[in-house]
Amino acid sequence: MVPEQGHCIPEGTIDYGRHWILSRDPMAFPDPEVFNPQRWLDSEGCLKDNIKFIVYGFGRRVCPGMHLANQSLYIAIAFLLWSFRIAQRPDSPIDTRLQ
Question: In which residues is heme bound (predicted)?
Answer without folding.
Answer: 63
